[in-house]
Write a structure and sequence with these properties.
alpha+beta, Hypothetical Protein Aq_1857, Chain: A, about 40% strand
Length: about 120
């Protein structure tokens, strides 16, 4: 993964992540999107949540579209994720979405929780 430098209100979706999301969404009803949000919890204070939703984005959602992949991020989560890169990794340990977040000052070993 390369270093990214995005505006604070932007989030990048890599090609690998877009392909994986599109593959997941292809098995769901038309109009389904992946909603990524930040909630309190995890071993570092905050954690990412991934939900498949079949709803229109709200007025304050950031909508990322790449080919047939659609991702929604609410404005509150965007405050924690601004400038981040969403990637999909397939390695010896397993497969997972990973978020390279410039706002995170620490994260847990599994990469699903972080602190700011």
């Amino acid at each position: 993964m390369t270093d990214v430098s995005l505006a604070p209100n932007q989030v990048e979706l890599t090609d690998r992540a877009a392909r994986r999301i599109a593959r997941i969404l292809s098995k769901e009803p038309e109009g389904t999107a992946l909603r990524i949000s930040v909630s309190g919890g995890g071993c570092s204070g905050f954690q990412y949540e991934y939900d498949l939703v079949n709803e229109a984005p709200t007025g304050d959602d950031l909508v990322l579209e790449r080919d047939t992949a659609r991702v929604f991020i609410d404005s509150m989560s965007l405050e924690f994720m601004g400038g981040a890169q969403i990637d999909f990794v397939d390695d010896l340990i397993g497969q997972s979405f990973q978020i390279k977040n410039p706002n995170a000052v620490a994260s847990c070993g599994c990469g699903t929780s972080f602190s700011v």
